[in-house]
Design brief:
The protein is of the alpha+beta class. The protein folds into two domains: 202 residues, no CATH class; 165 residues, no CATH class. The protein has 16 helices and 14 strands. The strands form two sheets. Strands 1, 2, 3, 4, 5, 6, 7, 8, 9, 10, 11 and 12 form a twelve-stranded mixed sheet that branches. The protein has a two-stranded antiparallel sheet with strand order 13-14. The longest helix has 41 residues.
């Protein structure tokens, strides 16, 4: 075996340019597999975390007929939390909060824009929706003081700054028209497109004054110990809230976007397989050319007693060496790229802002962290080696069929 390895290594380096060209496709294919898997899995986790940390928590309860998609936020049918439901929430969740989502018109001078308002409880909201990644200019109202926090998108569109007054106009729960002039006490960048584009945070007291909603709410958002418990907890919460409420898990809320990600993953895998197919053809060609160029050498080896099996093993080892070399380099390049962006992240804010209104309802973080997975790297490298070995089978069998005397003459 040592003799075959040494001989195969010498043969691989004999035509270094041809070998290099064959290895390039293996390198590219393996790197694409690793990078695409890291990207798609990173996007999946990005979507899930953005959904949980900014929009729904692990569970979200809404009125039974509340729209599950788009940017409509009706307030004509809201939820009221019963004592039994409150008791269940206190016993079975880590924390929970109530929100009122509505769509007021924001007016500044002659300019007006329809916003997505997050009416929040100043006491409990931060426990469900963490703010450690928020960048706030000014402050966030604690409920005792009047004022609203607008997103950077609203500030840009209406040319607002901290201290300016903003008129919010909306309909009340009863259907009457109401409006309040409120000071802008903070401008926030959350890193989530659905909030940063046209979002505004309104404390519960102000929401009640605007909507005349009392203790009613449109969203009940829940944090659990583990997001994997969401399905079981949803069944119990649905029972506690009654037929007037619909309970959805974070997975159901993010399902549409995750399905799109699954399609993207399949497309990326097909591209990687196409590259590896090209690599397989290149390696087969390299080994086949080597077999034709070394007919005398093969004949001499056969005349010296080397068996057909050993000839097959020799050429397959050459393919394996090219596959191992290309796979290792591709693994290093793809792994290094994914690791770098798993630590540093990719800033998508410019791209997401350029997406316009089409992306307004997407719950998506502006910073994307790829997922670095050693098992994916190992799998991709092994797959590249297997492709190279498989590509060497036919040329190896062809070389083994040469008769010693004919090969020496040939």
């Amino acid at each position: 075996m040592n003799f075959l390895l040494k001989l195969a290594g010498r043969n691989v380096t004999r035509q270094i340019s041809r070998t290099t060209l064959s290895m390039v496709s293996i390198i590219a294919g393996v790197a694409v597999i690793i990078a695409s898997r890291g990207l798609i899995r990173g996007l999946n986790e990005n979507i899930v975390r953005a959904q949980i940390d900014a929009v729904s928590g692990h569970l979200v309860a809404t009125p039974a007929d509340y729209p599950t998609a788009g940017v409509q936020h009706p307030i004509d049918h809201l939820l009221e939390l019963s004592p039994p439901a409150t008791e269940w929430l206190n016993k079975n969740t880590v924390t929970w909060t109530r929100r009122v989502m509505f769509s007021p018109k924001a007016i500044k001078g002659r300019d007006a824009v329809r916003l997505r308002a997050f009416g929040y409880d100043p006491v409990t909201d931060e426990a469900v929706f963490p703010r450690d990644q928020w960048k706030v200019e000014g402050r966030i109202p604690d409920g005792a003081q009047e004022g609203v926090v607008i997103s950077v998108g609203v500030a840009r569109v209406l040319q607002l700054k901290v201290g300016d007054d903003l008129l919010l106009e909306t309909r009340t729960v009863a259907g009457a028209l109401n409006a309040l002039a409120l000071p802008v006490v903070g401008i926030v960048r959350t890193g989530n497109l659905i909030v940063d584009r046209l979002g505004i945070f309104v404390p519960a007291q102000t929401v009640q004054a605007l909507l005349r909603s009392g203790s009613l709410h449109s969203h009940l958002c829940v944090r659990l110990q583990d997001r994997g418990e969401a399905d079981a907890a949803a069944v119990e919460l649905r029972r506690a809230l009654g037929e007037g409420a619909r309970v959805r898990t974070w997975a159901q809320e993010a399902e549409a976007m995750l399905q799109v990600q699954s399609i993207r993953q399949r497309v990326m895998d097909m591209i990687a397989l196409a590259i590896l197919a090209i690599a397989a053809a290149g390696i087969a060609n390299t080994v086949l050319m080597a077999a034709y160029e070394r007919t005398r050498e093969i004949g001499t080896l056969r005349a010296m007693g080397m068996t057909r099996g050993a000839i097959v093993a020799l050429f397959m080892i050459e393919g394996l060496l090219m596959g191992a070399g290309g796979g290792a380099i591709g693994g290093l390049l793809g792994g290094a790229l994914v690791y770098h962006y798993s630590e540093k992240g990719v800033d998508l804010s410019g791209f997401l802002e350029g997406a316009g209104e089409a992306a307004e309802s997407l719950s998506f973080s502006a910073t994307l962290y790829l997922e670095h997975s050693p098992s994916t790297i190992a799998w991709a490298v092994a797959f590249g080696v297997v492709i190279a070995a498989a590509a060497s089978v036919y040329p190896a069998l062809l070389a083994s069929r040469l008769e010693p005397a004919d090969a020496v003459r040939g």
